[in-house]
Amino acid sequence: MKKIGFIGVGIMGKSMVRNLMKAGYEVAIYTRTKAKVEDVIAEGAIWRDTVKDCVQDREAVITIVGYPKDVEEVYFGEQGILANTPTGGYVIDMTTSSPKLAVRIYQAAKEAGLSAIDAPVTGGDGGAKAGTLTILAGGDREAFDTCLPVFQAIGKNINYEGKAGNGQHTKMCNQIALAGALSGACEALAYARAVGLDAQTMLDSISTGAAGSAQMSNVLPRVLKDDYAPGFFIKHFIKDMKLADEEALEASVRLGVLEQVLSMYEKLAADGKEDLGTQALIQYYE
Q1: Among 14, 129, 171, 273, the one annotated catalytic
Q2: In the predicted model, is pLDDT for residue 218 greater than 90?
Q3: Which of 121, 124, 150, 174 might form a disulfide with 133, Cβ 3.0–4.6 angstroms?
């Protein structure tokens, strides 16, 4: 497998495309705004004007777009991925999306003579740049094994989660845990500031102990620098938390912490902050 189509070349996707090219893959790309990807085109990515053009000569297609509606738009229809990827190919959705939609794509892909994998990622923009993303894959084991070299070009912690949809369900678990970790880190900082502690000293003191987390080590340092640039957009985290809450309620599980953190982020979004990074949760407390 050498020819890959890549759809959705944003903050994460751009670094993933670069790492695929470094690994020797020929990568054709499509995204909504060509001007935003002129740099990776200059580095060797092949621009295609439509989704159909991007996939019709590819052995595998990777997507990482914004929302489930965007996933539906690029996969289905006469101009979509499933209708135009060559028979025998692999379609890999790395968007954090609906588990139900992942199963639907898997079934439609099988009918089209394709293999589908839902493989959302974690690790943020830093992990995408370093090629160290965590990959959570659902689908047929044989398809996962075939695509493993592709995953190894962009990630390090690569996990087969089971049947179609399980990659997305595992990503829901990640986002549920992340909501609590983010809010806990921000509450610790809000408390430290309120009682007059030096925030950096506090962070250095507790981030390597039992309270340590990626949020304490990687996210709060951005807050201390007033850096709210998005490694992960608030608006996308809101989407993820809503998906997780819907799936939980359907499974008769009530996620109180998730729902509270979701309400905090929705307040920030209502205040026009949806395009900031998730570390801007501290502004809720301020």
Answers
A1: 171
A2: no
A3: 121
